[in-house]
Structure prediction request, 394 residues.
Amino acid sequence: MADEPLSIAAAQQLIASHCSLLPAKAIGVNEALGLVLAEEVIASGDVPSRANSAMDGFAAMSGAAGRTLRVIGESRAGQPAQVAVNEGEAVRISTGATMPEGADAVAPIEVVDDDGANVTLRDELMAGRNVRLAGEDLRAGDAVLAPGRELGPAEMGIAVAAGRAELQCVRPARVAVVATGDELREPGAELAPGELHDSNLTALQALVRSAGSEVILASHVGDDPAATASCFAEALNQADIVVCSGGVSVGPHDHVKAAFIGLGVEERFWRVALRPGRPTWFGSRGQSLAFGLPGNPVSAMVTFLLFVAPALRAIQGRAAQTTRSATLGEAIARHSDRDECVRVRLEGSQVFATGPQGSHILSSMALADALVIIERGEGSLAAGSEVELLTLQP
Ligand code: AMP
Ligand code: MG
Prediction:
């Protein structure tokens, strides 16, 4: 443990060095959104499985315009025709329905004269016209998705097309969220003087869920050493990551660090040269990670995004966030000895601070589109400087 506050990057590296990939588990494909694939998905059959029609019309043998064909049956989606097509014959066919034997093209409804029993083709019908071939999308045995792939809607859809109902995925992280503080009351409660609503417990749970992780426990504890320790003991037994807010400074009513340490969590760092978010604490016990985030609502969210979110991504097998850059629309003063995480709104490719940046001003977080880090130093970072945007999406 260092006495000096760590840089943001050093703190992130230390956290990363304690992250290990969670085990894989079979997940119903419908529940796999945002998870990371832990196996290769192979197409179980051709997709489409049979040649089928791209149009509503008539399946027939290719040939010249002006032919009149006898309609001998129908092929509907899911109900192929039971007949084969010969010269002078056609089968009424729907989009997606299997091509009948003998037919090699489909004349769309719009280009035939249909009297119910016969159709006359107004145009020449070229071989292969409006026919989708078997295996045009996927061939049986094709490697469709590789391990490590993050599953979005298209990946989930193609896994189903490839024949899968379940996928081996890195399991979502189990996260316990704890808010400490005697002054906190549940949402909607009447407040006595000095009390406030516990906004962190809600915001932190939402961040966990936005990271594709599960909240397995969400509790409030008062500023009491025994209550804090028993809550953490339960949390550490069930969770991959325990995220706690408040109680992490050096006041007489701050019990978080001692409670974690008393439960065998080893302190890895305490304090980061960051504003807001200086008194951030991080420890680990085996594979379990523990974060003591500062209590002020913006500090809690910023430190979650900077430190907890990358850990969740790492253990869930997701790649690090890609960042994009923007330019400062106004000069922003530098803090002398801490890097400042500034809430900004985007206007085109320019960013502007959202207003007062106090660590208790949640309204300026709610107005923000992104965060930017203004490195510590003298003076200010000039308007027009290039900055990296940190997303608010974990
Ligand atoms: P602490 O880090 O415990 O000293 O908390 C710093 C300040 O953050 C407290 O005085 C509260 O005003 C505020 N705070 C702490 N926990 C919460 C919470 N769960 N929800 C909203 N504000 C909080
Ligand atoms: Mg407190």
